[in-house]
Amino acid sequence: MTEKGFVYITEVVLISMILIVSLAFLVRPIIIDEDWGSVDLRRMAESALDSIDRKFGLEETVFNETSFLEDEVNSLFYQTGQKERVEYNLKVEDSYPRRVLVGFNCTGDGCLEGDPVKEYGALWEIFSRTWINGRFITFQMREVDFTEFEGDGSLADEIDVFVIRGKDQVEEANQNRDALKKFLDGGGGLVQFSNFTEVSDYDIQEEIFGLEDGGVGGDELEFTNREDPTNPNYEPSKLFYGVSGLVNTGQPGQPSPREGSWNIRDREYTVDVVEDGENVTISNETGHELCSMCVEGDSFTLDIDLDYKETKIRRIYIPEEGPYRKQTVVWLDYPEGYRFYSDDFNSSAESTEGPEFEVLGTDAPVLVVNYPYNGRAVWLSESKDSAIGEHMQDDIKSLFQASALWAAPRGFWVKERTKSPRRKSSQVTRFGFVNEDIYEPYSLTMEVWYAY
Fold this sequence. Notes:
alpha+beta
């Protein structure tokens, strides 16, 4: 046999062996895992959200005085009894939370008249709930000692925003700055309300709040950025208009007089409630009526030194519970391009991060924000008269409230259930926005799984 013939036979043998070995794989049936559970779960979640969106609009169910989104989903999933095995989580992200828990510290002399109860009362006057985009945002307060910031599962883990007010509290915070850094690292927010000239030497100012000495001057203060949402100083100014101004028109437990005042730019406006509780009359200091027998949504013109003076009544509300139940609470919008008197503030400071972190005032910023670690920090100048609580100007109260809302973590749970890690689940996300009072984007995520 020639050498060429031997090579040919060898090739044939090798090919035959390959075909024999491969035949078993070629004829073996392909087994496909026909687990359609994840697909069914996703289809259920999509159908539920689509159905609610068609019926009410997702925004209406999420941004509502009383959210009824969970009730609607439960009705779709469980009313017929066909989906009793289904469990789900539902979370709104990126939007402002319905509740903000504010912590404060009263160590040493850092409280109003050395009394934690009075400090609580003063902060309560600032952090009254507000009405934004169809629902209430409520602030709750809790006294927290710095030792409670230590360890996992500590009380501080529940706090959204921690307030530091006045020289004594800033000094105490500086001594416990490592605890505050840990709090920020967990996503918490800080708000400092102080006279910066008295506390500028503390390490906390540059390390956490990103502050350095600023200038002095200027008769009026304007927001530095109301146009570019990519800059850090945009959102805090937006939130000032979002929280609006609140007027309580009665005293707890007293049915009359139903009258309150709105104090802005050293002017006092009187808000009188008509007998039915749904109409108000707003007058200036001379008794001239700017808005007579007005209802919710009515606009009127302020007699104030501003380029744009038009404002409106955002909300008229009679609480059924709480200290002002059966009284009337009125929210009033601030005019576009609102300006503050620099004389109302004690000091100014500049941002070490750059002017895009300076919110109110250019040559003499009185509100500066920062993004330290994984959290947010705000410094707001103390009032020149050192007033706190009910004696503060209402526009400064609104700045304080807007600062806390900006510093707070975003989003909230509509329904939160614990899912076993062994259970397969599917997620569906919807994106949207509301723009009733201010522009507010959000995402709604539903996670669905079988309980057994």
